[in-house]
Amino acid sequence: xxxxxxxxxxxxxxxxxxxxxxxxxxxxxxxxxxxxxxxxxxxxxxxxxxxxxxxxxxxxxxxxxxxxxxxxxxxxxxxxxxxxxxxxxxxxxxxxxxxxxxx
Length: 103
Description:
Layout lengths: L26 H11 L3 H7 L5 H13 L1 H22 L3 H8 L4
């Protein structure tokens, strides 16, 4: 029996740290955009034209297959960002506004 030339060898599943070419997006980056803005895959494509619709759908499908793991990665990213905001403190601009009693 002859094998089809279209059959590709098995490739391992991506991990939460798998990057989507060409912008090197993590799958959770697209998921966070979908959650934050309520974007559909088509709207994600409008805002990320360098990703194909198949890449977007693949990333979203991967999220649903590995939701618990990716939700943990997203939460860790959010916690890290919060720690960095606290560590950085107020910007000079915010400090000047506070000095002027402008909030």
